[in-house]
Design goal:
Nuclear Transport Factor 2, Chain: A; about 25% helix; 4-stranded antiparallel beta sheet; 4 helices; alpha+beta; flat
Length: about 130
């Protein structure tokens, strides 16, 4: 399987977000948890969108960096809707074998969203200067 084919298969999750169609993930065993969480995300963020920023391939593994954007319109993680918008980064690592995602790992910067919603305070600025 060519690298571009692997990338396209790994992008199915992002296509499911943009089309609000979890059925796109059917037959992809690595997305079993994703199929459960996406309906919750769509309820909380009905305008949720995903932009693929970067993808790399190493053998069977595809790494994808995306930007998620949306507006907090429904309860999520115990937080009542705020009506505020957010933009966060998400990194996925997918093993694509036999034309399917067989393993999926994803990390999203939900802390940044909680700051945008006013649920937690933003951390103090960090200096880029090294200590002497």
């Amino acid at each position: 399987m060519q690298a571009e084919e692997r990338k396209a298969i790994a992008r199915l999750a992002h296509e499911a977000i943009n089309s609000k169609n979890v059925a796109l993930l059917a037959g992809q065993p690595g997305f079993w948890q994703t199929r459960q969480i996406f309906p919750l995300l769509f309820g909380a963020y009905p305008d949720l969108s995903s932009t693929v920023e970067q993808q790399t391939v190493d053998g069977e593994w595809v790494t994808t960096r995306i930007t998620l954007r949306g507006t907090h319109r429904g309860e999520f993680m115990g937080v009542a809707p705020t009506g505020k918008s957010f933009e966060i980064m998400q990194i996925s690592l997918d093993q694509v074998a036999g034309g399917k995602v067989v393993e999926h790992f994803g990390v999203s910067d939900w802390f940044r969203a909680l700051v945008a919603f006013g649920v937690v305070a933003a951390p103090a600025a960090v200096s880029a200067r090294a200590e002497p």
